[in-house]
Amino acid sequence: MPGGQSRSGPHGQGERSGARRDLNFKRPSIARVYDYVLGGRENFDIDRRAAHSFLNVIPEAGQLAKDNRLFVRRGVRFLVGEAGIKQIIDVGSGLPTAGNVHEIAHAIDPTVRVVYVDNDPMVLTHARAMLDENETSTVITADLRAPETIFDDPETRKLVDMEQPFAVLISAILHHLSDEEDPFGAVAEFRGRLSPGSHLLVSHFLDEDPRCRDLERGFMDGLGSGRFRTWDENRSFFEGLEMVEPGLVYLNRWRPDEDTPRDHPVEKLFVGGIGRKV
Ligand SMILES: C[S@@+](CC[C@H](N)C(=O)[O-])C[C@H]1O[C@@H](n2cnc3c(N)ncnc32)[C@H](O)[C@@H]1O
């Protein structure tokens, strides 16, 4: 079980940035719950309680977050190292953690430009601190449900040339949108913006494992979001794109490294893939 340190209270860098008034510590936040499950320190009691409402259902569920980060790592390595992508928009990027997207990309090509996007202002303050003096990467506060605000943001426009190939990462976030919030429509808008040679990476909970409904209830009780969707629903995120091998698969089956965990008890709860705009 990850052990987040208790923080004395909500007195973070937000106060210095002016974003403090927008931070919400009365409710759990997806970014902080995820941070806790990954073993981070940027979380509070309310987040840890929310995490345990699904960890109590399947204690191994914490492994899903770790598998997802490793999937993102392999995906970014592919995008930069094999597909030659030089600009990345990471939507729902989360709090800084071990192996951030710009670090993975820059280990291969230091000129890659990265725009981090999240609707949680705490991500903005922490990512800004991380990116201090980094001219190839930036962070903006915007919402996945309004893709135009991401593409039209001056920071995005400064770093990403939409005429050239770029990659959009939408990882471990769409399952936090209800059907009413139309994750399918939002992703279709992102797909519509991709220039030829651009790529879309998506990871999302899968409803194949019969335990997923109990886990979903745990997520809904603790966090108010967390939907497990079918293979077909997950495939539809990539409509019209050419799938990069091996297609949409359980996360750990996507181009595994030698040490990628395999065949563990929660493997079938999470899928991911990368599609290419031809
Ligand atoms: C589970 S974390 C995933 C972080 C990272 N993408 C990864 O795969 O490791 C989901 C992130 O999406 C953000 N998020 C949730 N809903 C969002 C929305 N509608 N627009 C933008 N970001 C959102 C949360 O604040 C959180 O930081």
UniProtKB/TrEMBL annotation:
Q: Which domain of life is it from?
A: Bacteria
Q: What does the UniProt keyword field contain?
A: Methyltransferase, Transferase
Which SUPFAM superfamilies does this one have? S-adenosyl-L-methionine-dependent methyltransferases
Example GO molecular function: methyltransferase activity
Keyword field contains Endoplasmic reticulum: no
**Which protein are we looking at?**
SAM-dependent methyltransferase
What spans are recorded as compositionally biased (Basic and acidic residues)?
13-22
An example Gene Ontology biological process: methylation
Record has Transferase as a keyword: yes
**Region feature (Disordered):** 1-22
UniProt source species: Pseudonocardia xinjiangensis
